[in-house]
Amino acid sequence: MAAGFDGVEIHGANGYLLEQFIKDGANQRTDAYGGTIENRARLLLEVVAAVAAEIGADRTGVRISPVSPANGISSSDPQPQYDYIAGQLSALGIVYLHVVEGATGGPRDVAPFDYDALRRRFRQTYLANNGYDLELATARLNEGKADLFAFGRAFISNPDLVKRLKTGAPLAQPDFATLYGGGAAGYTDYPSITA
Ligand SMILES: Cc1cc2nc3c(=O)[nH]c(=O)nc-3n(C[C@H](O)[C@H](O)[C@H](O)COP(=O)(O)O)c2cc1C
Fold first, then answer.
1. Angle at the Cα of 111 (from 107 to 117), degrees rounded to 5?
2. What does the pLDDT look like over 24-59, one tens digit per residue?
């Protein structure tokens, strides 16, 4: 925040530390941070409360991925687990809930999950991610199923993504050979349509 950012996104997704506590495929603790749905959510909620106390809940967002197998993490009870988390985060008043729907970077229907039910438990902004294009995002927006959409891969290969979406210009596809490491090639050299 001191460097001028508008807020902080707490990463509770994709097999990182907080998700390792949330999902019972990884969490085998027998103390207050393991076992029940409430216990497995405890570390996430404590971290969120601490960050919100420091910078304000209106500047604190959280990213989750209820059914994503990213980094080898699994859960036997994603729906009740994340319904509980969404309700608790709603009560904490955080500004948005960022949800990776399905397998991160993979199929959206990797496992059954009711994202509409999740959203109903969270009163603030619902930010959807994973496999969105203009058509799907527009449909979900018009159905009232989400408020905002995060684009990943499309932004890498289209530095002017917003302009292209506004004008209906075709999108460039990312070169997967240059993703995940290496140098600037494949990250800073995709042309803008207007360049
Ligand atoms: C090159 C690359 C690197 C990524 N790195 C991360 C990461 O460090 N942490 C993370 O949570 N997600 C990461 N992701 C996943 C994206 O944040 C996003 O969830 C995913 O690409 C799905 O969105 P999309 O369909 O719009 O691309 C990465 C994706 C790509 C393509």
1. 110
2. 999 999 999 999 999 999 999 999 999 999 999 999
Is 16 in the active site?
Answer: yes
Query: Could you tell me if the CB of 180 is within 6 A of ligand 1?
Result: yes
CATH H-level superfamily of 8-150: Aldolase class I (3.20.20.70)
Tokens of 14: 């994709």
* Residue 129, helix vs strand vs coil: strand
Q: How far is the CA of 132 from the centre of ligand 1 (A)?
A: 12
Contact indicator for 44, 62 with CB cutoff of 8 Å: yes
100 Cβ inside 6 Å of ligand 1:
yes
**What ranges do the domains of the chain cover?**
8-150
Calpha distance 144→137 (Å, rounded):
11
Which residues neighbour 134 within 8 Å (Cβ) at sequence distance 6 or greater?
Answer: 165, 168
Tell me phi and psi for residue 51, to 5 degrees.
-65, -45
| Averaged pLDDT of the chain | 96
Cβ contacts of 154 within 8 Å, gap of 6 or more: 133, 161, 171, 174
Q: Which listed residue (16, 33, 187, 190) is catalytic?
A: 16
